[in-house]
Specification:
Elements lengths: L3 E2 L1 E4 L15 H14 L3 E5 L5 H13 L4 E7 L2 H11 L4 E9 L2 H8 L3 H18 L3 E6 L6 H14 L3 E6 L6 H14 L7 E6 L6 H10 L4 E4 L13 H10 L6 E2 L7 H12 L20 H9 L19 E3 L5 H10 L6 H17 L3 E2 H12 L7 E10 L2 E11 L2 E8 L3 H13 L4 E9 L8 E8 L5 E8 L2 H23 L4
Parallel strand pairs: 1-10, 2-3, 2-9, 3-4, 4-5, 5-6, 6-7, 7-8, 8-9
Antiparallel strand pairs: 11-12, 13-14, 14-15, 16-17, 17-18
Helix pairs in contact: 1-2, 1-10, 2-3, 3-5, 5-6, 6-7, 7-8, 15-16
């Protein structure tokens, strides 16, 4: 069977970061970009450089450091946006400028306040300017799915003639329906005679839960690039989910004769990384990467899977990198055994990193009877997300009860100096956080606090995720894991505090 290639354009670091409450710093973005390259995406949309100096810095860092993949930067159809985008990506091995302007009448009337001819002029000027910087230029017609088809085709033709090598047709508000959207794509390819000069791309939002279905319909009708995000995160209800579109193409080759360059075994690890860094948990019933995606509770299902896995599983979980949960190590295990197991889980460590991991592993093994793959993953996810620690947790003591005002005494280390404070609060966690605030002199707003069990059992690892906002409106995600939920809470809050301090240092802002 003849198979055609579909390019995967990942916009987790741009559209995905626009999810409410998500804010990634430059180093976190770089970690995700490196994993996306390892995953095998064709294009990484690293950000929208004009929006802030921090975003421009992150895009530049990715452009310099991540090779073997196209690095794109988003820009409105304006000279300043395009020039700023180029400044950010000019050191990339394969740079792409992605410029856009809206084409629907509702956007023209209420947002742009332009007539149709002006929109065409702006689109052409933007593509021509971007073309002066790089041969790889993508043009997007924002809100394309609600645009007049004939006008949209005029814009697309003008953009291709101006030099656009990729034309993106977004369903910006998730309004389309699969059959309708597929036909829409087919008509664009028919009506625009110069489309053989460019790749047709689609970017579908999930407001009606149809982003993946619409993207598949578009592929069937000629689209050869899909814009998507890890875990489907993004504006409002999110975007087309990378893992779902990729595995749909992989699993249903019988009706979808297409392939991608994605290394499917990296999907689960990428999903976990994005979830942890953004602080957005993956829903248990999420397709492909959810906790329940390969779980079977029904007796009939269990019986079927035990006899023949394919009775109720259309994919092998190992195909997407989901390891079998099993006991791998204990407190008597050595450094070599730990190294080998971490390698199996995908963590390649330097000798120094292995030594640090081994110390943490031994401490964990003393607290737990069984150390599972999930425990090791949680330990490593916490370790690789660390920022330089201005403050580290030395100890804490809690006094609380039904008739006692919760009181916390907290000891932190700063450059080897022990700092101690006590505080009362509405509960033990609140008391801990107030004591930390006293020591650090910071009092960020606690926007979100959540607890998740990483593993099961009485000695399960607990994960606490917090979102903290400083006086400048900057939001960071802090994360901590421990068998003691109060310790995990303290570590998560300190992780967030250290990120805020690191951000101050990077920007030279006063505390």
């Amino acid at each position: 069977m003849y198979m055609e290639r579909v390019r995967i354009f990942d916009t987790t670091l741009r559209d995905g970061e626009q999810s409410p409450g998500v804010s990634l710093n430059a180093m976190e973005k770089l970690q995700i970009a490196r994993q996306l390259q390892k995953l095998g995406v064709d294009v990484i949309e690293a950000g929208f450089p004009i929006t802030s100096p921090g975003d421009k810095e992150a895009v530049s860092l990715i452009a310099r450091e991540v090779k073997g993949v196209v690095v794109a930067a988003l820009a409105r159809a304006s000279a300043l946006d395009i020039e700023t985008a180029w400044e950010a990506i000019k050191e990339a091995e394969s740079p792409r400028i992605h410029t856009f302007i809206a084409t629907s009448d509702i956007h023209l009337k209420y947002k742009l306040k332009m007539d149709r001819e002006t929109v065409i002029e702006r689109a052409v000027a933007a593509v021509k300017l971007a073309k002066k910087f790089t041969a790889d230029v993508e043009f997007s017609a924002e809100d394309a799915s609600r645009s007049d088809l004939d006008f949209l085709c005029r814009v697309v033709e003008a953009a291709v003639k101006a030099g656009a090598t990729t034309i993106n047709i977004p369903d910006t508000v998730g309004y389309a329906e699969p059959e309708e959207f597929g036909e829409f794509i087919r008509k664009i390819l028919e009506k625009v005679p110069v489309m053989d000069r460019a790749v047709l791309s689609v970017h579908c939002h999930d407001d009606l839960g149809l982003a993946v279905a619409n993207s598949l319909a578009a592929i069937k009708n000629g689209a050869r690039q899909v814009e998507c995000t890890i875990n489907g995160i993004g504006e409002r209800a999110g975007n087309c989910s990378l893992e779902e579109i990729v595995m749909a193409l992989y699993t249903r080759k019988d009706v979808l004769p297409f392939y991608t360059g994605i290394k499917t075994e990296e999907i689960y690890r990428t999903s976990k990384l994005v979830s942890n860094l953004t602080g957005m948990p993956v829903q248990p019933n999420k397709a492909i990467v959810g906790k329940n995606a390969f779980s079977h509770e029904s007796g009939i299902h269990q019986d079927g899977v035990l006899k023949e896995r394919t009775t109720y599983e259309i994919m092998n979980p190992r195909l997407v990198g989901i390891p079998e949960s099993r006991l791998v190590l204990g407190k008597h295990s050595g450094r070599h055994a730990l190294k080998e197991r971490l390698l199996e889980l995908g963590y390649e460590l330097t000798e120094e990193q292995l030594n640090e991991a081994f110390v943490k592993f031994k401490a964990l093994a003393d607290k737990k009877k069984e150390v599972t793959d999930q425990d090791l993953e949680a330990m490593m996810e916490e370790e690789i997300r660390k920022v330089p620690e201005t403050y580290s947790l030395e100890y804490f003591h809690i006094s609380t009860g039904s008739t006692i005002i919760p009181t916390a005494t907290v000891g932190l280390l700063k450059e080897g100096e022990k700092l101690e404070e006590a505080a009362t609060g509405d509960g033990p966690v609140d008391a801990i956080y107030k004591a930390i605030n006293k020591i650090t002199g910071l009092a960020p707003v606690l926007e979100q606090y959540s607890i998740n069990a990483v593993t099961s059992g009485e000695d399960a690892l607990g994960e606490v995720v917090v979102k903290l906002k400083n006086g400048f409106g900057k939001i960071v995600t802090g994360r901590g894991v421990s068998t003691d939920i109060l310790e995990a809470s303290a570590k998560a809050y300190l992780n967030g505090i250290n990120k805020l301090l690191f951000d101050y240092q990077m920007k030279g802002e006063k505390q």
